[in-house]
Design brief:
Elements (H helix, E strand, L loop, with lengths): L2 E5 L10 H10 L4 E7 L5 H11 L2 E12 L2 E8 L6 H26 L7 H8 L7 H10 L6 H9 L14 H10 L3 E4 L13 H9 L4 E5 L5 H14 L2 E4 L20 H10 L5
Parallel strand pairs: 1-2, 2-3, 5-6, 6-7
Antiparallel strand pairs: 3-4, 4-5
Helix pairs in contact: 1-2, 4-5, 5-6
Bound molecules: adenosine monophosphate, zinc ion (ZN) and fe (iii) ion (2 copies).
């Protein structure tokens, strides 16, 4: 069983449609793939249909933007009930904040002589239900300002750069509670990745485990072998389920392929058992 529990489609900042994402998962030899777009469930139906057609099990998921001790922390919600009103209103508020920060990011770029409009960003975002910096990056590429998303982040959009504006997001503890209330399973995405590494120390992870967190995404491209060893040990101590995933973004994330990191089948079974809908 090859299980990849964190990927993105064009419903957020991935470059492939949900159906194409699932086809790519099949081509990569995956048995299970989670579609986990940022702050939206908009890709679920198309992905589910493709999964049925192609014989790939599609896990409905969402990567929720949250804040913890002033830092951006991403929470993976697996199998939450999409019809849960609390969940949907939380996601809608985050998407609203994402949209409203775009003009301020454009102002930051304009102060440096780069003039893009909201329309340019919308064009780059295409069908996305959730607007993000990668779409500004794509607009910068289309305008010939940079050659890649990576360069756009390094020069213009990364933290501390002229086009960066942080987005409002709910506290991590609230997001975990909402996911559970919606019957979902809560896994901390790339805990020691960019952004969250500074704030998520072992004591924090212990407190989150006590608050009901279900799992830790240990095998992720942002974690080096030493991080993985340490996170695995912490997860073992705290009784957190270990996951692994590619965090695939299609052509939007260089060097990351589907199935690059995988979740152990036993861990997958344990996650399923904790969800109201799948378990
Ligand atoms: P946002 O959610 O709008 O703040 O944008 C963050 C997203 O941008 C992340 O989820 C990644 O997909 C992407 N990202 C972050 N840093 C980089 C980078 N250095 N190069 C390319 N993409 C990045
Ligand atoms: Zn992303
Ligand atoms: Fe993330
Ligand atoms: Fe992600």
């Amino acid at each position: 069983m090859r299980i990849d529990l964190h990927t993105h489609s064009s419903a957020s900042d991935g470059t492939e449609s949900p159906a194409d994402l699932v086809a790519a998962a099949r081509d990569a030899g995956l048995d299970v793939v989670a579609i986990a777009d940022h702050d939206t469930t908009a890709g679920w139906d198309d992905a589910a249909r493709a999964g049925e057609r192609l014989g790939v099990e599609v896990v409905p998921a969402v990567e929720i933007s949250t804040t913890y001790r002033g830092a951006d922390v991403h929470l993976l919600a697996l199998w939450p009930d999409r019809d849960d009103p609390e969940l949907q209103s939380m996601l809608a508020a985050i998407r609203d904040g994402r949209e409203h920060r775009v003009p301020r990011m454009l102002d930051g770029l304009a102060r440096h002589g780069i003039h893009l409009t909201m329309q340019d960003v919308q064009r780059a975002a295409g069908p996305a239900a959730s607007l993000g910096r990668p779409h500004l990056a794509d607009a910068l590429i289309a305008a010939g300002v940079v050659g890649s998303r990576e360069e756009a982040f390094a020069r213009w959009l990364g933290e501390g750069r002229p086009g960066h504006v942080s987005k409002p997001a709910p506290p991590l503890a609230r997001a975990i509670a909402v996911v559970h209330e919606a019957g979902g399973v809560a896994v901390l995405a790339h805990p020691w990745g960019r952004g969250s590494r500074k704030v998520l120390e072992e004591a924090d992870l212990a407190a989150l485990a006590a608050a009901g967190l279900d799992g830790l995404e240990v095998d992720h491209v942002d974690h080096d072998p030493d991080d993985r060893t340490r996170l695995r040990r912490i997860a073992g101590t705290l009784g957190l389920i270990v996951t692994g995933a590619s965090d695939y973004h299609g052509a939007g994330k260089a060097g990351v392929g589907l199935g690059m990191n995988l979740t152990d089948p036993a861990a997958y079974t344990a996650l399923r058992a904790r969800s109201r809908l799948a378990g």
